[in-house]
Amino acid sequence: MEQLDNPVEVMGIDAGGTMTDTFFVRADGEFVVGKAQSDVDESKAVLESSVDALTHWGRKVDDVFPEMVTCVFSGTAMLNRVVGRKGLRTGLIVSKGFEDFHRMGRALQSYLGYAFEDRIHLNTHRYDEPLVSIKDTRGVTERIDSKGNIVIPVRLHEAKIAARELIEQGCKAIVISFLSSYLDGRHERAVRDVCLEVIKEMGADIPVFASVDYYPVRKESHRTNTTILEAYAAEPSRAILSALSSKMGDHGGTFDLRVMASHGGTIGWKAKELARTLVSGPIGGVIGAKYLGEQLGYENIACSDIGGTSFDMALITKNNFAMHQDGDVARLVLSLPLVSMDTIGAGAGSFVRIDPHSNSIKLGPDSAGYKVGTCWPEGGLTTVSVTDCHILLGYLNPDNFLGGVLKLDVDVAREAVKTQIADPLGLSVEDAAAGVIELLDLSLRQHLRAMITGKGYSPRDFVCFSYGGAGPVHAYGYTKGLGFKETIVPAWAAGFSAFGCATANFEYRYDKSVDIGITKDSSKDDIEKSVKSLQVAWDELKEKVLEEFRINGFKDEDVTLIPGYRMQYLGQLNDLEIDSPLTSLSGADDWDALVQAFDDTYARVYASAARSPELGFGITGAILSGSVETKKPKIPYEPIVGPNPPKEACLGTRPFYYDKKWVDADIYQMEALQPGNKIMGPAIIESDATTFVVPPTFKTFLDEHRLFHLIEC
Ligand code: AMP
What's the predicted TM-score (pTM) here? Predict the structure, then answer.
């Protein structure tokens, strides 16, 4: 009966490369976290992880799924499909004469992700394989100029031939992307209809994507890449999500499955624009950090998330995260609004090798994935990983990986580290493994510092949140000496991204490019026209947003709509995203309010003295977000008990290699620790899916919200 009064309402899922985490929230806000190894069959891992989580409440999946209202998924499968070029074979139709622009990727794709010193050397630039090969690309004669005038009418008979050829060649989807189509989409839509006719005639069953229907924005490389991703990467994910949704249905679930999207809200898996879920897991962590910060009064947060494969960093300033309008992902320029994050391919499962040229240790960029290292009990991996070093040095307990489900083989790891790293470098096994850990710590620390100082801030202004299964393992190492106000490790660090997913609102956001320019010489009539054109763009986007909510069964009146725009001083290169101070615009008098909101934001982001109103103002984009509030988890609260850990939390000691010597670290069981407990390093606090390392010269205490505060003595 108690369960009916207090049903499980929300579930968050983070299907990462190594682990699949689940996070369940009850009506009273209490939550539990589950873990399972990731699997090629994502629904299998999700179910196993759910069983693991619900065991804490002594409940079964078949009883809980029917109670749930909503479930939010985040995962890396779509991104991996893009990186590995394993997507759906897609045909591309472009303006004739521009068949090569997709391969050229604005040239800048050839050095995306490079360090500055490599960017400036042309000989280091490299082009990845394009998503669509030139063989599967066709040009169709047409042209719309940069003002939106039709200068060459579209030749539809060419489109017909192109579509037929692409289908005969074996393409499983067709994307149409013409120059300037965001100004006038008629050519693209006419070709789209021709393709649909040809598909019908040929009895084929393949989807067609016109860029104007999805991303009506300027910059054709960005727009084309993003539309291609809808076909190439998102359609296969849709199939996986559909399978997951029906598997959950088999266990009694009637809830909507939603997916974390790059803009920081969640969208339905049936959403038209699913490519915006390309990056989802790490975004979940940032949303969770923002929520936690809002609840507990942390305004400025440096988010740091380490899992098996990557280290993701983001900044929250004054409770807000920055957005990239056209960020890049996987070395592709895209038109997706993206929570601003920095990622490096180094994690706790990264492979470790000796560089034959410099005879130095190199980490990654590839990693052991769910098989974690040579210590994997079923064998199969021969290259040393960071995890091998962790278990050798006592950082991780080889008998407690995933709560002991997997017993990692320390002897195999020792032998592998000896032959692959220690012997070639002439070091002891311990020093070689410790060198690997130090190198990882140093590299993470440098990236974190660069990310913060590069944006003009100092770590002193921030609290660092450390999460992901391996965040607490390395928190001491990558924060050491940076001077953060505090370093905080949530006790549920291992499921933090899944927690973040469970805190995210149901939110759609659509963007459209507009061209508005107003100077001091503009007439009232010009301003009137401009204001109206922004309102027309908002109306168009509003319809798209509401349509998506309708697909998920929401009524228009349930949705809170927030219009926004991107504005700049005329002639400047960068614009800023502004939430509109007005919900609708009626005439020229509203212009001043739009300008005022921009001026204020500009002064906050840069400096008051940098404002340049004399240049005039331009609006480059219209934005409309719609959201529906969802049930949020409650931040844990338990009263302070006292400084001494209870007996049941003390698990004895184990040898731990730190700073070139073996020390005896006190071992604690994380869940058994009580608020107020103080622990001096060397200590290691173990949980089923994460391990908090407190080396000598560090100490920690657990507060009443189950947050550990790590302090350098
Ligand atoms: P994540 O990808 O966020 O789930 O993190 C996975 C990483 O968590 C692993 O590669 C380990 O380095 C780290 N970890 C720390 N303690 C444990 C544990 N008890 N079980 C599993 N992974 C752990």
Answer: 0.87
